Hints:
Layout: H1 4-10, H2 15-37, E1 46-50, E2 56-58, H3 59-73, E3 78-83, E4 90-91, E5 98-106, E6 117-125, E7 147-153, E8 157-162, E9 168-172, E10 179-183, E11 194-196, H4 207-219, E12 227-228, H5 234-244, E13 247-250, H6 265-277, E14 282-285, E15 288-289, E16 304-307, H7 309-319
Parallel strand pairs: 3-5, 11-12, 11-13
Antiparallel strand pairs: 1-2, 3-4, 5-6, 6-7, 7-8, 8-9, 9-10, 13-16, 14-15, 14-16
Helix pairs in contact: 2-3, 5-6
Binding site for Mg(2+) 2: 103, 106, 268
Family: Belongs to the FBPase class 1 family.
Protein name: Fructose-1,6-bisphosphatase class 1
Amino acid sequence: MQRLIPVLKKDNVELExxxxxxxxxxxxxxxxxxxxxxxxxxxxxxxxxxxxQGEVQKKLDVIANQLLKGMLLDDDSVRAIASEEEDFVVTGxxxxxxxxxxxxxxxxxxxxxxxxxxxxxxxxxxxxxxxDDSELQFAQKGDQQLCAGYVLYGxxxxxxxxxxxxxxxxxxxxxxxxxxLTENNFEIPVRTKEFSVNIANYRYxxxxxxxxxxxxxxxxxxxxxxxxxxxxxxxxxxxxIISRGGLxxxxxxxxxxxxxxxxxxxxxxxxxxFLVENSxxxxxxxxxxxxxxxxxxxxxxxxxxxxxxxxxxxxxxxTR
Length: 320
Ligand SMILES: O=P(O)(O)OC[C@H]1O[C@](O)(COP(=O)(O)O)[C@@H](O)[C@@H]1O
Ligand SMILES: [Mg+2]
Ligand SMILES: [Mg+2]
């Protein structure tokens, strides 16, 4: 089994970027250990604090955020970071080459029920024409990502990552503590009968999206035999889709604050879109490629339709 570093070197990834990826993975191993300890380590349950999204933070949200933030700010290749759990940009080493954005713990509502959770990260080049602490550092389109990945803390701890080439999977080997290559090049099937959505939101959706689901659920034979999966952790749903295809949807809806759905562009939609598109799938928002969206704020949300090419195309065709 090939180790991670030789694979990245073969991909001609620059050494400084490889070292930064190592920093992120060192934090992920520590998070993986804390997650596996669960109640034994007292990491379950909520804090009394809310993040900028208005969500009550889980203890593990805070622990994972502190671990990643601490290790990244100690890394002198990092100029600034942005996190779901940080209201603002946090600056690192001046003139350093990279900026990093991350969702320290995706699927927080699964923490206390031993469900799937993960860490999502993305790396960009730092900008020299804006201040280090400015949100403009992160106002870069998703197609400018140098590297994107997630670590899934499931039965195994898996790293799925791209540096612009194939999307690959590495499994954390608990015997020697390193990530070993277990999937060299994911290729998402163009169409399946699996879809993933929180169907309980149906009443709040625009009519065209309701019609799409009416057709899918009971009107059209073309969809008979479909099955739904919902992990309540985007990282887990997207991992299933990268592994065997399907469609992940988090549409806009009519509730206050949900006009763009729930998924955050910078540290959820863009990194996962980069991974899916580099596996032959499609990632769109309101019919437009997610990777081409010009970001306007750190925690902005976007409606998403991500997954198997033909399923995304059909959804966009009937809901536009
Ligand atoms: O509450 P819902 O509608 O099931 O939403 C679940 C979605 O929210 C999220 O948990 C949001 O991410 P966080 O857990 O990082 O806040 C996604 O991973 C998941 O797809
Ligand atoms: Mg998340
Ligand atoms: Mg999160």
